[in-house]
Amino acid sequence: MEMNMFGLSGLGGILLLALDIWALVSILGSGATSGRKALWVLLVFLLPLIGFVIWLIAGPRARRS
Hints:
Oligomer: single chain
Largest sheet: none
Number of strands: 0
Radius of gyration: 13 Å
Number of domains: 1
Number of helices: 3
Shape: globular
């Protein structure tokens, strides 16, 4: 069985995809400006693992209803 650098194959890859989708939905639902939203979306999209961790620590959160 071959593993990639981060060991994100199979279930790990699906889990990362789900977490990234959650981050993207949260970013788009946040009160941040359009420019900041675009930068966060690019970060999470281009660097899925690192972008998610950075968003989790410092990213904009969705507005509470």
